[in-house]
Each structure stands twice: as structure tokens, then as C-alpha cells.
Amino acid sequence: MAINKITISGKICTGKSTLLKSLQKELNWPIFMTGQLFRDYAKKNKLNLEQVEEQNDELTKKIDHQVRDVIKLPGNLIIDGWMSGLMANNLPDVLKVLLICDDYVRYRRFAYREKVGIDEANKKVEERQTNWLNKLKKIYKRDDFVDPKNYDLIIDTSNITSQAVLKKVLQKIKE
């Protein structure tokens, strides 16, 4: 069966948004960005992203279920989000991509993006990530969100260009 949806999962600053935008440009498929929904919600409600526990569990479930439902609709779609790959479990027309990356590289990316020092980046990334993973574990009673066994394609973005990452995904969908 041909791939008509791609999910992109991974920890903070592994390159999910970059890959999503590159795929959108290359494939001209619509996108769904779960992280942007949360950032918009946090901004609108004056919440701190590092303090994910402030978020309502129902909002998290609502967005995750929205992802699950939209994945099942006909048509092409690219989705990035922590839960997107798991929400596509057992769907044959979905390529589930997991991006992994060396922690120090992720901290450097965050520092550059947020214009903060590396120590502050390390602290913020780890705090946000720990809060988020603990929240998901509490809601879903599981902790395998970034376990490679749940994905079709695992790409280490530590030492390759975003163009090389894109090429790997495009090759996989042509198989």
C-alpha cells in the first residue's frame, strides 16, 4: 500500500518541525503541527511551556485524539508531535518517523533557537521534556513514546543535514 501520511515524532530539538516543513515543501501535502497548537495555547493562556503540568489533561487528550482521528481520514497529511506515531499504530498507509539526536546537539539547537546560553538551554529542554513525558505517562499509562520499536524509520539527526534527513524519508516512502 502506498504511503499517504507521515508522522514525525521525537524529543525536543531533534528536527521535527524542520522535517515537517521540508516535507510539506517537497510533497505539497497539508500539515498538522501538534506542538504549535500547544505553543499557541500556552501563549493565549499565558502559560510557561516548561511547566506543562499547568496544562489541562483534557486539552492534551483532545489534541492527541484529534491527531488520531485526522490520521484515519482519506488523503495526504504530514503530522508532527510526540504522540503522532503512536496514534498511527497499525495503520498501513502511514510512515511513522522517529527523529533521535545527541542531547548536547539538541541543547545547542535550543540555545540558538531561543537565544539563551547552553546551560539554560540544557535546563529548559530537560525540564520541559521531563514534564511532558511524565504528563503523557500519567495520561496514557505508558512510557514508550520515543521507543524505536514503535516506528518504521528512525533517523539520528545529530550529524547530518536537514536535507539528508529529508532524503531518507523520501526514499522510504518510495519503497
In short:
This protein is an alpha/beta fold. The chain is 51% helix and 14% strand.
Structure description:
It is built from 7 helices and 5 strands. The chain is α/β, with parallel strands linked by helices and 175 residues long. Strands 2-3-1-4-5 form a 5-stranded parallel sheet.
Outline: globular
Proportion of beta-strand residues = 5-15%
Side by side, the strands of the main sheet go: 2-3-1-4-5
How much helix, percentage-wise, in residues? 40-55%
Radius of gyration, in angstroms, nearest whole number: 16 Å
Element-level helix/strand string: EHEHHEHEHHEH
Low-confidence stretches: none
Number of helices: 7
Number of strands: 5
Structural classification: alpha/beta
Terminal CA distance reads 10 Å
Largest sheet: 5 strands, parallel
Q: What would the average pLDDT be, to the nearest integer?
A: 87
